[in-house]
Amino acid sequence: MIKFFNVFQAVYETRSFSQAAEQLYISQPTVSVQIQQLEQTLGTPLFTRNHHGVSPTAAADLLYQEGLVLTDRWQELVDQVQHATKPHVTCRIGVSNTIAATQLPPIIAELPQTALQEFDCQLLLMNSAGIVDELVAHNLEFGFIEQPLTASGIARRAFFTDQLVHAGDPKRPLWLLREAGSGVRHYTDRYLAQHNLTPKQVMVVNNNDIIVRLLTQGIGQTIVSQNVLPQQVAYQSLGPQFTRQFYFLSRPLPPTSPLNQLAQLLQDQLTTESPQQR
Predict the structure, then answer these.
(1) In angstroms, rounded to a whole number, what is the distance separating the alpha carbons of residues 78 and 80?
(2) pLDDT tens for residues 128-174?
(3) Distance between CA 70 and CA 24 in Å, rounded?
């Protein structure tokens, strides 16, 4: 049944049998057959076909939401069985760029030394929108994001207050922009709209560190966190309207999961202070 659900999940999320087949590295007929078998087992249709692809039925919506919870519990059980003598639980944490550079290292450093012993942690650098999407899809357990996003069932807690500035040479035509979906891009678009600006030249860069390195070479201008700028990069204040919150996100977990304890430990380290003040 888990195999069938994995195929169902891919179709549900892509809204396409062909894209699901590509994602799973199997043939489209195989996807179709497994969905048909799942529908026969459940006694109800899960998708309706249309010229855009496929649309999920109400039964499919229910199966997707509840199925993610059951597959989480199954994976937890598999982890416990495979590591019966020394259980380790996978913990996937999505982290946006500025938080990864400034906030996350002190947070992890201040955890109790034994806090991570039973976890296999994965830190995944992503933008804010991508982190929310992956939490909803149960591909992450926790997330740290830089814009006020949330989704149904996702718990959110605000912590550190960050100041954005206009960095680089404002006379240069080149704007260095983060990709759509990132926290900084959200505020950059707001700044450009408020000042009725349309950049004549744009370079999209999906990594803050690269943007800062370009700025240190005198290349371009951008909106960026003041906390990531080296002293040699000039900047202009944008005022309190470009002060933003960072957020810690978590999705529902089984009550018995040790990840609940880790979530509490991480939240205990959250602060409104800058890393330099700790």
Answers:
(1) 5
(2) 999 999 999 999 999 999 999 989 889 999 999 999 999 999 998 99
(3) 20
Q: State how far the Cα of 136 lies from the Cα of 223, in Å rounded to an integer.
A: 29
Calculate the dihedral angle through the C-alpha atoms of 93, 94, 97, 99, rounding to the nearest 10 degrees.
Answer: -50
pTM, 2 dp: 0.70
- Radius of gyration, CA atoms only, the chain: 22
Range of the domain at 227: 162-243
Domain count, the chain: 3
Are residue 61 and residue 130 in the same domain, yes or no?
no
- Check: CB of residue 15 under 8 Å from CB of residue 8: no
**118: which 2 tokens?**
């039973």
The whole-angstrom separation of Cα 149 and Cα 131 is 10
Q: In this structure, are 14 and 147 located in the same domain? A: no
Burial 182-203 (b: 16+ CB within 10 A, else e): bbbbbbbeeeeeeeeeeeeeee
Residue 261, classed as helix, strand or coil, is helix
N-terminal to C-terminal alpha carbon distance within the chain: 50
Q: Could you say which of 71, 105, 127 is where a domain stops? A: 71
Q: Name the more confident of 71 and 260.
A: 260
Q: Is there a contact between 89 and 119 (Cβ–Cβ < 8 Å)? A: yes
Q: Which of 78, 154, 142, 153 is nearest to 116 (CA)?
A: 142
In total, the chain counts a number of residues equal to: 278
Query: Comparing C-alpha atoms, which of 40, 16, 38 is closest to residue 28?
Result: 16
Q: At what angle do helices 58-82 and 2-14 cross, to 10 degrees?
A: 130
Q: Do 10 and 53 have their domain in common? A: yes
Helix, strand, or coil (residue 20): helix
Smallest CA-to-CA distance from 148 within 110, 102, 96, 198 is with 96
Beta strands in 169-226 (DSSP E): 174-177, 201-204, 221-225
Contact between 150 and 111 under an 8 Å Cβ cutoff? The reply is: no
